[in-house]
């Protein structure tokens, strides 16, 4: 018999919700959703690959609970976070006659969660969404906190809305269908939590990361801990007016690198985050904020896991330093034209650095591109 799932609460008052983490929770989805919203119809938004793995189990669970389900399927991959696919999903919800008191279920990774959440936020001026993340990255990051969105040619997630889910079901067993590459990409978001605010958790990850990949209790602990850290920050700063920006450690670099890679499989989001985190630590060390040995320790761990840590690790390249600077200038954290980065004083000690010197950053990127 499976152990009872771990439950993390996102405390947003009347809009608060549970994150349920454990093996087999997709099979329990129907009962939980029926209890949450009696009599509701649902639309399952998923991509074709994820639905082939988990769609039957979810539909069976919903059917047993007497819930009518419709399907809106999209192609897998970051390219689906587009205006065209947002329109397709929104029109699919309307065609399925999903009403404001019904539910949208986002079954998939971060792309599906962001896309479905954005469509739910806009359609009929707001339909509640249940997130069922099936990738490690989505379980520990994108499914929690209410950020939804699509990409613009100018940058990642530039169009979207805050739209909190009413329930998150993170089935740790669903991760068994992931490739090793996608598991590593998700792990980058887990390690981020230790690096930004919990050195003890980072120490634990260095010792136990292989158990997370193998599954079982260590995987559930890592997911639950990551969700609890994010939930606490979101409860204090829901719309990223201050502290929540810490969750973007490595992301200013990462989003620029993703844009310059064409949002393609050349660079997964978690891989970009790993490079971005390593860059943030190296820049902090270069600026005298953190010890060089700390940046080296972080890079060694990411390398041991199998994650990239250098811009030169990106197959096909991303252009010149000036291209990266131009892409970072489109980042959502830019305020009145001034660059904002999350920098560090050490492991577990991140802070928001506003108005980072552009010339100094350009010199840093020049050296990084040259391997110095």
TrEMBL record:
One Gene Ontology cellular component term attached to this UniProt record is:
cytoplasm
| Pfam families referenced in this protein's UniProt entry, alphabetically | DHQ_synthase, DHQS_C
* InterPro entries for the chain: Dehydroquinate_synthase, DHQ_synth_AroB, DHQ_synth_fam, DHQS/DOIS_N, DHQS_C
3-dehydroquinate synthase C-terminal domain residues are: 186-334
E.C. designation(s): 4.2.3.4
User: Could you tell me the superkingdom of the organism this chain comes from?
Assistant: Bacteria
**For binding NAD(+), which residues are annotated in this chain's numbering?**
110-114, 134-135, 147, 156
Task: Describe the reaction catalysed, as an equation.
Answer: 7-phospho-2-dehydro-3-deoxy-D-arabino-heptonate = 3-dehydroquinate + phosphate
Annotated GO biological processes are: amino acid biosynthetic process; aromatic amino acid family biosynthetic process; chorismate biosynthetic process
Q: In which pathway does it act?
A: Metabolic intermediate biosynthesis; chorismate biosynthesis; chorismate from D-erythrose 4-phosphate and phosphoenolpyruvate: step 2/7
Calcium found in the keyword field: no
Q: 3-dehydroquinate synthase N-terminal domain: which residues? A: 72-184
Which family does this protein fall into? Belongs to the sugar phosphate cyclases superfamily. Dehydroquinate synthase family.
Q: What does this protein do?
A: Catalyzes the conversion of 3-deoxy-D-arabino-heptulosonate 7-phosphate (DAHP) to dehydroquinate (DHQ).
Q: What is this protein called?
A: 3-dehydroquinate synthase
């Amino acid at each position: 018999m499976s152990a009872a799932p771990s439950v993390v609460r996102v405390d947003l008052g009347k809009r608060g919700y549970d994150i349920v983490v454990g093996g087999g929770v997709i099979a329990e989805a129907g009962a939980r959703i029926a209890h949450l919203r009696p009599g509701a119809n649902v639309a399952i938004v998923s991509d074709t690959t994820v639905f082939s793995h988990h769609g039957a189990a979810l539909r069976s669970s919903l059917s047993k609970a007497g819930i009518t389900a419709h399907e809106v399927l999209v192609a897998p991959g970051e390219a689906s976070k587009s205006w065209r696919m947002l329109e397709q999903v929104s029109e699919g919800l309307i065609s399925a006659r999903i009403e404001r008191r019904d539910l949208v279920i986002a079954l998939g990774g971060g792309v599906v969660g962001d896309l479905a959440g954005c469509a739910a936020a806009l359609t009929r001026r707001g339909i509640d969404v249940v997130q069922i993340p099936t990738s490690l990255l989505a379980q520990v990051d994108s499914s929690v906190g209410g950020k939804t969105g699509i990409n613009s040619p100018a940058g990642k997630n530039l169009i979207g809305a805050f739209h909190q889910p009413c329930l998150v079901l993170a089935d740790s067993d669903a991760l068994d269908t992931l490739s090793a590459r996608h598991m590593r990409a998700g792990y980058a978001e887990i390690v981020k939590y230790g690096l930004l605010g919990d050195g003890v958790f980072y120490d634990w990850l260095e010792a136990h990361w292989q158990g997370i990949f193998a599954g079982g209790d260590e995987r559930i602990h890592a997911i639950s801990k990551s969700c609890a850290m994010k939930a606490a920050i979101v409860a204090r700063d829901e719309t990223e007016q201050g502290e929540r920006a810490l969750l973007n450690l490595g992301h200013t670099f990462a989003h620029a690198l993703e844009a310059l890679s064409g949002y393609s499989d050349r660079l997964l989001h978690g891989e970009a985050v790993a490079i971005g985190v390593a860059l943030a630590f190296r820049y902090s060390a270069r600026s005298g904020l953190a010890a060089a040995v700390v940046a080296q320790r972080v890079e060694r761990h990411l390398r041991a896991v199998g994650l990239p840590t250098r811009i030169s690790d990106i197959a096909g390249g991303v252009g010149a330093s000036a291209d990266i600077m131009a892409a970072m200038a489109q980042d959502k954290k830019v305020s009145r034209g001034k660059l904002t980065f999350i920098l560090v004083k050490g492991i577990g000690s991140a802070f928001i650095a506003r108005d980072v010197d552009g010339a100094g950053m350009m010199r840093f990127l020049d050296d990084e591109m040259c391997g110095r």
